């Protein structure tokens, strides 16, 4: 599907674009709220400033994509491949990133308040100055990620802690 056909169908009211191939497309600033892009190929796409709030991107390939300043609040990002993606200043408030692959992704100044990070691959990722307040972090290897000046004072984690609830509040170790 080419970009013109995609936008035409979206503007007609279609929201199911599961499995669509949009490799390298320019969707800067596009309003795609609530769209279903599950299993889609958006590798190397320019989605900077795009509104993808409440979108379904489960199992999508978004490697090396530009998502600077994109709104992904409340999005389903389970099993998404974001290797090498640029998510600087992205809004990921309340997003579900369970099982996501964010290796070498740039999340500098990203807002991850209340996001779910369950078994996320973050090796080599940059989370400098990111906001992780009230984020749920479970079985995620954070020490291998760049965390300079990351905020969030308290992050819920089930890696160790309260036997009754299986979770604990952990200090984020601000600098």
Automatic annotation (TrEMBL):
SUPFAM superfamilies found in the cross-reference section: Pentapeptide repeat-like
InterPro entries the UniProt entry points to: 5peptide_repeat, Pentapeptide-BTB/POZ_domain
Stored Pfam families: Pentapeptide
PANTHER family reported in the protein's UniProt record: BTB_POZ DOMAIN-CONTAINING PROTEIN KCTD9
Name of protein: Low-complexity protein
């Amino acid at each position: 599907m080419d970009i013109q056909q995609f936008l035409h169908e979206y503007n007609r009211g279609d929201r199911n674009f599961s499995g669509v191939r949009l490799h390298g497309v320019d969707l800067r600033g596009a309003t795609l709220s609530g769209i279903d892009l599950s299993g889609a190929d958006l590798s190397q796409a320019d989605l900077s400033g795009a509104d993808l709030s409440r979108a379904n991107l489960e199992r999508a390939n978004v490697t090396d994509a530009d998502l600077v300043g994109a709104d992904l609040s409340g999005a389903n990002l389970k099993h998404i491949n974001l290797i090498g993606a640029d998510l600087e200043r992205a809004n990921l408030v309340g997003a579900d990133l369970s099982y996501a692959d964010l290796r070498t992704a740039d999340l500098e100044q990203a807002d991850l308040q209340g996001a779910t990070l369950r078994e996320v691959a973050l090796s080599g990722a940059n989370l400098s100055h990111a906001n992780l307040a009230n984020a749920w972090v479970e079985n995620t290897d954070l020490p291998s990620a760049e965390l300079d000046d990351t905020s969030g004072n308290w992050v819920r984690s089930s890696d160790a802690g309260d036997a009754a609830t299986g979770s604990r509040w952990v200090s984020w170790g601000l600098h």
